[in-house]
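INTERNAL AUDIT FORM
Audit reference: QA-55
Scope: verify that the stored structure record matches its stored sequence.
Auditor: D.O.
Record contents follow.
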Amino acid sequence: MNCTKLIGAAALIGLSFTSAAVAQDDLSIGIVTFSSSDVDTNQMIDTMTEAATSQGWSVETLNANGDPSQAITAMKQLATKGVDAIIITVFDSTGLAAGIAAAEEA
């Protein structure tokens, strides 16, 4: 597995997708969203997805339905798939310790 980055959504928004730090072909990005019913979150995910796909990267978004345990499950699924980066929206990172550990291990 090659899950090398676990990035908070706020940090990612400020990160230029064309910077040398992330300029790489064929990256896969996993996004764990708090809820697909939140307009602001959807707009943020759409913006991140558009920026990533414009670089030729693949993006998979999983909805945690506001539940930290579903977010952890989603993070573990993405880590198992070997995505290059996982972006989590809204959740408190202390509640996602098991998912973070799975991503770090991968």
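Auditor finding: record pair retrieved intact. The chain has one domain: 5-14+28-105.
Action required: none
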